[in-house]
Write a structure and sequence with these properties.
By secondary structure, the chain is α/β, with parallel strands linked by helices. Helices cover 36% and strands 20% of the residues. The chain has helices at residues 2-22, 24-30, 32-35, 103-114, 148-161, 208-228, 248-253, 262-276, 297-311, 332-340, 357-365, and strands spanning 41-47, 96-102, 128-138, 181-190, 194-201, 232-239, 243-246, 283-290, 318-323, 346-351.
């Protein structure tokens, strides 16, 4: 019986997997999965599955093809002869059910759908730290790890069983055999060996729709890269005319105004790499999202120089996503193409709207760096 249940469950998961792949582009563009994200799982709305069953009718009610009409008349028409005509029905419509899927399985589905290659990490992939985790209770151990509640309960249990416990004078005196200690196990804990540095233009030309696109795409980039590494750190930089590091919530909710100096973000990114992420130990992925508007040609020249000398020599990949905005000039992606067209470490992608998110992810991650 358990084997049949396992088999049926496996077939059900395959059906769910197929449904997700079939509608993956819709889920990505609408951000439905992110809205239902929990701890290491996402909830996906899928049509509920009804088990078919027979329903017996009244006697003498006739069968299929019986009743008024002539041979050859089509079945299923309304009262006036037109399909769909008639009074309002009393049957419920289709219902959606949330199906939980792990982020690991979700990454595999996206990998299959986008044909993403495996990444060969470097550095600390093989370096682990050791962590002590308390796993149980034992009767021996150092006094610093004595479990006082368990020791008291054991002493009380012994005194009651030996009839030495006096309710009128409830004094509990543990002896050596009563003492209980926490036990532990030393577990390997992989260190983070990859860092994603997200940079986003938050000047006045980047509206809510543009930031929503960045939020959705960043979630899927995170999901994929986390499936490739034991551990990942994410850092967030926002910039207009100045750049600063922020937390994740601030990154996606901040709305600023004013001009744009992209070099301010690249300078902060380069300093972050230099101070905290040695390139021989870390896999480094800077992602920059903007509408392509920069303050001046001189600042663009500064950006190009920073990329050539301070960023590209130390990273696996530098990705620039240009979100289409009615207010941005869109010039910066052309400048990057002019200077880095033949550099495989630089990947650019134009994101014209939510429907282009999936293609942009393919652009960024399809080289497997």
């Amino acid at each position: 019986m358990s084997q049949r249940i396992d088999l049926d469950h496996g077939r059900f998961r395959q059906i769910i997997r197929g449904k997700i792949k079939q509608h993956l582009r819709k889920y990505i563009s609408q951000g439905e999965m992110i809205a239902r994200k929990g701890n290491d799982k996402v909830a996906i709305p899928l049509p509920s599955v009804d088990i078919p069953h027979f329903k017996f009718g009244d006697k003498q009610s006739g069968g299929v093809g019986q009743g008024e009409g002539q041979p050859g008349d089509p079945l299923g028409q309304g009262k006036d002869g037109k399909p769909g005509a008639g009074e309002a029905g009393d049957r419920p419509g289709e219902h959606l059910t949330d199906i939980e899927v792990s982020l690991q399985e979700l990454a595999e589905i996206m990998s299959e759908e986008l044909a993403l290659p495996r990444i060969l990490p470097k550095g600390t992939e093989k370096i682990v730290s050791l962590k002590d985790k308390y796993t149980g209770i034992r009767s021996t151990g150092p006094e610093s790890l004595r479990h006082f509640r368990r020791t008291f309960k054991q002493a009380l249990r012994r005194q009651i069983s030996t009839s030495t416990y006096d309710p009128k004078n409830p004094v509990i005196v543990p002896i050596r055999d009563d003492k209980r200690y926490r036990s532990w196990k030393t577990l390997p804990e992989p260190q983070a060996n990859a860092v994603i540095i997200y940079m986003m233009d938050v000047s006045g030309s980047m509206g809510d729709e543009q930031k929503e696109i960045v939020r959705i795409e960043s979630f899927w980039i995170d999901t994929w890269l986390r499936s490739q590494y034991h551990g990942i750190e994410s850092r967030y930089i926002i910039h207009d005319a100045m750049a600063k590091e922020v937390d994740r919530d601030t990154f996606f909710k901040t709305r600023e105004s004013g001009g744009t100096m992209i070099s301010s973000a690249y300078k902060l990114c380069a300093k972050m790499i230099e101070d905290e992420y040695p390139p021989d130990l870390w896999n480094i992925y800077p992602f920059h999202f903007s509408d392509g508007d920069n303050w001046s040609v001189d600042d663009t020249v500064t950006c190009v120089e920073l990329l050539k000398t301070k960023i590209l020599p130390f990273v696996n990949l530098f990705a620039y996503g240009q979100v289409e905005s009615p207010y941005g000039s869109g010039q910066f992606i052309k400048d990057l193409g002019e200077h880095f067209d033949e550099d495989e470490r630089v990947v650019t992608s134009e994101i014209k709207g939510k429907d282009a998110i999936m293609d942009s992810i393919k652009d960024f991650l399809g080289k497997g760096k």
